[in-house]
Amino acid sequence: MITLLKRLLGSAAVLVVVLVLNFFLFRIMPGDPLTGIVDPRFSPEAKQQLAAQWGLDRPISEQFVVYIREMLSFRFGLSMMTGVPVWDELKNRVPNTVALLLPALVLSSALGLWLGVKAALRRGSIIERVVLLSGAISFSFPSFFVQLLLLMCFAYLWPIFPLRGTTSIPPPAGIAYLFDYIWHMALPVFSLVILGFGGFALYIRNMMVKAMGEDYVLMARARGLPYSRVVWNHAFRGILPPVLTILLLSLPGVVSGAVITETVFSLNGVGRFLLEATNSHDYPAAGAAFFLLALLTVACNLGADIMYVLVDPRVRRESSRG
Amino acid sequence: MKRRLSTICLALLIILAIAGPKWLGLQDGVQAPAYSKPYWLDSTVAGSFTLDARDGEEVPLSWSYAPPLRVTITGRLDEGFVRWRTPDGDFILADTPGELDLDARDIPFKRAMGISPFGNMASVLFPADGEYKLDLVGRGDVSMKVEGGRWGVLGTDHRGRDVATLFVRGIRVSLLVGITATLIATLLGMSLGLLSGYVGGLTDTLIMRFVDVLLSIPTLPILMVLAGIWGKGLWNLVFILSIFSWMGTARTVRAMTLSLRDAPWVEGLRAIGARRHYIIFRHLAPEALPLLLANVALGVPGAILAEAGLSFLGLSDPRVPSWGRALHEAHTYGAFTNGAWWTILPAGLGISMICLIFMDIGRKLEEQVDPRLSAATALTFQREGEE
Description:
Chain A has about 325 residues and is an all-alpha fold. Chain A is built from 13 helices and no strands. The C terminus of chain B is likely disordered.
């Protein structure tokens, strides 16, 4: 329990840092935040009125309190470009980002896991070559390049997938909507899987190769256990905690990847919202999108942490004692 | 390190980046029509060239292509007329003395040639394959510029700039940003790691917690926001990248410092009254250097990819041609709908190649620092036929 509590505290600390960073990032820039939207011809009174609308005329401590309240209540204030509450614009985009990242993460870790173990068991086979090559690709090929190539091949030269967007325009109704959505999401998710499984498989292969040489695996084989049981229940079980750590460390990268993927495929997600907001200097909107992405990462991190506690008997025993 | 493929490639790239523009005669700026194909790709399309005719000269031209995209005539006519002889008949392009500035897309010019305002004059001037002549009867100096859909080794981009030139210019940005950002980050990570490992206590806890937090926040959104706020200059980018990539180095250096802190020779130094900063900077820092060399090489791909990612999102200086920028422009200005794969492949392969080079060098350095590594863990892929 203590370990879990510690992890919870850690996540809370990350959130606090994100919140503070988010607040000050937009206030350390030169000039005041209104210069982007206020026409120089505006009268000082109009400018003051606008400043009052966003609460920019108050002292910074009071602004901070209001900001924290807005963030924690998920209202995020008003967008400077449209004047609409940011959450109203964002809430339709969150499911798209989750629908992009979650299947990609699950598929790529499952594929990476399976291929990594297979590659470690059959050294020198085609599977091992594939793992080594895809690992090199995922470490050195820019994601947007691979995605652009995929888009070029499967959406332009051989148009079996749509070139852009989350749904067709206008979106079809009923069950057709679901198929249309999957059809639009297929290529982005596929690209993330291609880019993601390689690095993961490579780590698993390396750890599995080491684990298969350990004494306890030799012992298990000597006891005459079935081979698959030796592989999965002994060797793989032993490397599970570090595997989870790798997964945990890769999560921020996955969320960062969402921004680029959504831009390449013109998906209506939080990442592209952040890019648009940044480009149009819409600070409340950009801050909200950044906060949501960080929140997504922290949530995934916490999930992985809980799994870690479940998986590592040492941690579990320690926590049951505490 | 000697004669390893990656080091040779890196040397070639650096030479190309420094001397390439001069040796290869690469030209910046707009060269040819937008999305011209590479020269070797399609022999049915004409390249771009200029015909010059002076007093009474006849300039021959043999033509076996599709009609060109653009035809312009400039120069000066003192007397006489300019005749364009085609296999299907002759055209008098100009017969009034004076400065000439004619474009085949101009409606008055089309009317003068007897073509409808909506007709394509380039296809009328180049009706078939065969022998053509630009004929200046009289005195003057006239040049006719014919622009087809082919240009250079790698074609042109959406603005008609030479892709090969942009590629060579991009090497510089990638190397510069990748190496300087990693160097700064490594210095930062080394100092903080040494401090945290040697001093210990509250300092250690604070720095390491900070590292944990930074490692669990997605950095790209922060980089985007910072680039948006602080401006898109090249050095801003370097600065932003380096303050968010020192964490790994700090952890490595801290672990090393912890293992050395209580070593007998360090204790000896303390015993003879050496100051803390003297021990850290004169004894512990040199100890960390070989480790960091590999760390720098392995960190460069990350910085290059991050720079390329930001540029791809349009958050880089538009005046500085870089590979990420090239891909951003290809994506934004419809390279797909023009089928212009040559604007995408060179830049993308360039980034990948440079990252592979640095990964390979880094791995080699790492093996030299710690020979045990070469046996079991292969972080990059093994290539056949090497070693």
